[in-house]
Amino acid sequence: MYIILAIIAFGVLIVTHELGHFLAAKACGVKVNEFSMGMGPKLLQKQGKETLYSLRALPIGGYCAMEGEDEETGDPRSFTSKPPWQKVLILCAGAAMNFFLGFLLILCIVPNMYFQEPVISGFLENCPYEGEEALMVGDRIYSVDGHRTWFRSDLVEYLSRREGSHDLVLIRDGRRIALTDFDMHMVEYPTEDGETILKYGLLFAPRDTGFFADLRYSWYEALSFVRLIWRSLGDLVTGAVGVKELSGVVGVVDYTNTVTATAKSTQEALFYFAYIFALIAVNLAVMNMLPLPALDGGRVFFVAVTGLIERISHRHLNPKYEGYVHTAGFVLLMGLMVLVLFNDVMRIINR
């Protein structure tokens, strides 16, 4: 059941993306020739005033076919005839819708998520970090080594990245206080069973409750997803993560099925499911805005570059050449997707 839900969810993510382009195009007066839900053979279609609305057989995919996307057609309502700011608005609308969908999914499940604020509520006995020149009860740890901390987990993550000194920014009584080269390391504390455990010795305040608190936490969690994606991209560029470790649709569906299968109840499984696809929705928004050919971010980049060239040279550039670049980029993107698909399948077979 969750495999089917995952496939449908991917379709919803793509349709939501295309719906963003569609709504922005209509708002900017661009003619939309067809808006399709799904790919492949048509199952249903309805001709609107100017747009053909279609439902196709394959649930993964969809598209918003605008007049004159990659070539001049002479139509004053074509995409290429619009001013740069409207083009950018239309191109960014798809990613914005994906991000908004991810935020809504988080908002639906955030009441059942456990958070702690990065606000110190106390210290364990003999904690070495308590004092007026160090940390005090009520301090909000605003950032660690330049990284914003929204949750206690953010604080733990950035402190654990390296042992030794850190640059902390605190909010104390409404004032911002900087602790530069503040030495922090884990200390052994005894447990009830006589063992020892490494801790920083800090206690943190529980999360706030209520709708507006949930809105704030949902926003912070969505931003945490963005930060996670950028960090993952950085690991890919630096070689810390290899291409073989990337996962595509097949890998995500398989992972979703595995995680939901371990859930103790249907409610817990749906929670995991929503969380995973909230992350994917935000991931799709971020990845789609990368300045690479065939992606919306690449198209935005070309809008900026061609606008600058035309302003300097006073010559109009034929958009078909940009179309060639995006076509080449699409071919390379499809090649990468085939490689990732192969890796996903082999990973499942060898498991």
Description:
With about 350 residues, this protein is an alpha+beta fold. Helix content is about 50%, strand content about 20%. It contains 8 helices and 10 strands. The protein is globular and about 75 Å long. The two termini are about 20 Å apart.
Tags for this entry?
8 helices, alpha+beta, globular, 4-stranded antiparallel sheet, 351 residues, two-stranded antiparallel sheet
Q: Say how many strands there are.
A: 10
> Runs with pLDDT <50, length 5+?
none
* Cα shape: globular
Task: Please give the count of helices.
Answer: 8
Question: What's a concise summary of this model?
Answer:
The chain is α+β, with helices and mostly antiparallel strands. It is built from 8 helices and 10 strands.
In terms of topology, how is this protein built?
Layout: H1 2-27, E1 32-47, E2 52-66, H2 84-109, E3 116-123, E4 140-144, E5 147-148, H3 152-160, E6 164-172, E7 175-184, E8 187-190, E9 196-199, E10 202-206, H4 211-238, H5 249-261, H6 266-288, H7 296-313, H8 319-349
Antiparallel strand pairs: 1-2, 3-10, 4-5, 4-6, 6-7, 8-9
Helix pairs in contact: 1-2, 1-5, 1-6, 2-4, 2-6, 2-7, 4-6, 5-6, 5-8
